[in-house]
Amino acid sequence: MVRLVFPLLLVLAVPAWAEEFVFYPKILNTTTGLPASPGQFVSAEKCAYCHPLQYEQWKGSMHANALADPLFQAVWRESSRETGGRTDRFCAGCHAPVGALTEQVWIRESGQIVIDPRADEGVTCDFCHSVVSVKLLEKGGNPGNSGLAVEPEGAKQGPYADAHSTFHATAYSDVHTRSEFCGACHNVFHPANNTAIARTYEEWKGSEYARAGIQCQDCHMVPPEVAARVADTMEKAVRTGLTSVFDTERTPFFDHDFTGANAAVTTLLNQWTRANEARLRLQSAARLELVVPDTVAPSRVLEVGVRVENARAGHNLPTSMTELREMWLEVTVRDLGKDGQVVFQSGGLGEGRRLDPKARRFGAQAMDADGRPTWKPWRIARIVRDTSIPPRGAVTERFEISLPPGAKGPFEVVARLLYRSLPQGVADAYLGRPGWKVPLVEMAATRAEVGVAGE
Ligand code: HEC
Ligand code: HEC
Ligand code: HEC
Ligand code: HEC
Ligand code: HEC
Questions:
Q1: How much is the pLDDT for 266?
Q2: Is 146 in the pocket of ligand 2 (CB under 6 A)?
Q3: CA 55 to chain centre
Q4: For position 24, what pLDDT does the model report?
Q5: What per-residue confidence (pLDDT) applies to 11?
Q6: Distance CA 99, CA 42 (A)
Q7: CB atoms within 10 A of CB 106
């Protein structure tokens, strides 16, 4: 039986807040309801004295870099400018939660980010381990928008019932072993119009993984190859490791690198190991299959089907801010009778490495209030289309290819599933790094040959 008990369970009403981005302190809050002071949070550098392993893993993660992230900062500044600063704390609620809790974070008109140095560690140790409960939002009963209750200077909440430390009090927390904890930040909705901007938690909740009790932690707090095994066997991996420098070896044990699919910004942050782990996760996620006839007459239409299966992601593929992410199929047909001349391609990169607008892309398409396409979270008013693939689901994309006059055959068909964390145009406009190419990850590839048939 899956236990669904949260200490201090709160059900919040989502008010008709209309013009304001009311976020903190309505949703993310301390247990007392009073702003925290920055001095109440201990820096990760201090935790590192006794938890060096956890620290090393966390330090390179997108959690540690949630505020330092140059893409986030550029986009955050723009949202601040456009909304008169109303999104400063809204965005900080997940990207710099200590800053939101201490109310010590805002963006000056000059674009300068002001934050107390004790609050600038992104999603830091002492934030996560001071969470005492998850607040379920009234709409849908799901966690979201950083709905967490935090007890600053309280016991460090963790997965063990019998941990002892002279430095801090400890407490067993069921919350930390469950997806709802992660879902509080990995389920994002627009605070004014309620549109779901990212719904990773909800996608997971409806999946076979959730029914089998496989939590986010079981895939994202273990190495990629272990996560792949968890997905294949539907069984949690039980690992052992050192919890502190005091030789406290424990089972179960969880890693803190939290890699996902970000093989782009991680390289800008010089986190090459993380970038590589993100690649491995992306490469484990999908299965591709080509459906082609054995033969085709060179003057006819070649029908190609490509089946894309979400084999190992515990949520949709792709997930989270898929308005921004790019995952698509590249299909290339070559005429082997004519030196491999390309007779058809879909999903190629054009000038400025821009993705062909006609590419078969997976993910959400969003519009702003005026009906213009947008990926900017604060502008999103509705999602018009979502072609992300549900967990364990599959879609088949069909291509009807008119072979050009003079084609000879046989033909080679190559399908590749590709991923980029952001479009090249967004990188060019926001990152101020001329010439930097957004890394492209080949998630899966397959090929087939089609012979020549008589007319
Ligand atoms: C995003 C939230 C988050 C952050 C940031 C975080 N942790 Fe954790 N930590 C967890 C969760 C969740 C678990 C328990 C996982 C489980 O048991 O399912 C955990 C487990 C632990 C444990 C138990 C041993 C282990 O590794 O499994 C220790 C000790 C720990 N964390 C210390 C730290 C330290 C020190 C930092 C910063 C360097 C840190 N944590 C950062 C969420 C976090
Ligand atoms: C409820 C939590 C939450 C809030 C609020 C939030 N974000 Fe995020 N944001 C996330 C998560 C989680 C990710 C990472 C998702 C992923 O890796 O796919 C993310 C990723 C991003 C990224 C992509 C970063 C990258 O490295 O690829 C940008 C840009 C971003 N957020 C901007 C914003 C802005 C601007 C706001 C405020 C208008 C905001 N976010 C508010 C949770 C949040
Ligand atoms: C002086 C050493 C020391 C420092 C500094 C320290 N810890 Fe610990 N911590 C320990 C020891 C020892 C344990 C017990 C380990 C065990 O029993 O497996 C522990 C246990 C934990 C646990 C597990 C609690 C549970 O009940 O499951 C968490 C979480 C944790 N620490 C987080 C932190 C965080 C966050 C910081 C920084 C704010 C920190 N620790 C700083 C020594 C320390
Ligand atoms: C069965 C294993 C599994 C489980 C369970 C799982 N994930 Fe993932 N996750 C993956 C894989 C594989 C990827 C890489 C492919 C992708 O992007 O979806 C991934 C990617 C991600 C990404 C990066 C998405 C992007 O494109 O930027 C985030 C964020 C994420 N997961 C969060 C979560 C959260 C939160 C949960 C729990 C609600 C969760 N995951 C549960 C396997 C899992
Ligand atoms: C306080 C909010 C918060 C909590 C709690 C939280 N996350 Fe995150 N997480 C974020 C933000 C913000 C980012 C993205 C940072 C960025 O890209 O700038 C992120 C990034 C990630 C990524 C990296 C995605 C990528 O594309 O590489 C993974 C994986 C992830 N989180 C998993 C988890 C899991 C698992 C948990 C629960 C144990 C969790 N998160 C809890 C806010 C949170």
A1: 97
A2: yes
A3: 21
A4: 53
A5: 35
A6: 13
A7: 15
Find the 50 Cα to ligand 3 centroid distance in Å: 7
What pLDDT does residue 86 have?
Answer: 86
Boundary-marking domain end, from 250, 275, 310: 250
* Residue 400: partners with Cβ closer than 8 Å, 6 or more residues away: 301, 302, 303
- Consecutive 10-residue averages of pLDDT for the chain (455 residues): 38 36 69 93 97 97 98 96 89 95 92 93 98 87 94 97 95 98 96 91 98 98 98 97 93 97 97 97 98 95 98 98 97 98 97 96 96 95 97 98 96 98 98 97 98 85
| CA neighbor of 249 nearest in space, from 240, 258, 238 | 240
62 Cβ closer than 6 Å to some ligand 5 atom:
yes
pTM recorded for the entire structure: 0.95
**Is 41 close to ligand 1, i.e. is its CB under 6 Å away?**
no
CA nearest to 413, candidates 359, 340, 347: 340
Tokens describing residue 329: 């199929």
Query: What is the whole-number distance in angstroms between the Cα of residue 256 and the centre of ligand 3?
Result: 14
183 CB within 6 A, ligand 4: yes
- Dihedral sign computed on CA atoms, order 117, 120, 126, 130: positive
Q: CA 338 to CA 104: how far, in whole Å? A: 66
Residues in contact with ligand 3 (CB, 6 Å cut-off): 42, 46-47, 49-51, 125-126, 129, 156, 158-160, 163-165, 167-168, 170-172, 243-244, 246, 248, 250
Do 161 and 23 lie in one domain? The reply is: yes
Same domain, 208 and 296: no
**pLDDT of res. 194:** 87
Residue 272 included in any domain = no
Report pLDDT for 454. 78
- The total of structural domains in the chain comes to 2
* Residues in contact with 4: Cβ distance below 8 Å, sequence separation at least 6, in sequence order: none
Ligand 4 centroid, distance to 183 Cα (angstroms): 11
Domain that holds residue 84: 10-250
Instruction: Assess whether 238 and 378 both reside in one domain.
Output: no
d(CA 304, CA 290): 7
Report whether residue 79 contacts ligand 2, using a CB cutoff of 6 Å: yes
Q: What confidence score (pLDDT) does residue 25 get?
A: 54
Q: Which atom of ligand 3 is nearest to the CA of 250?
A: 18
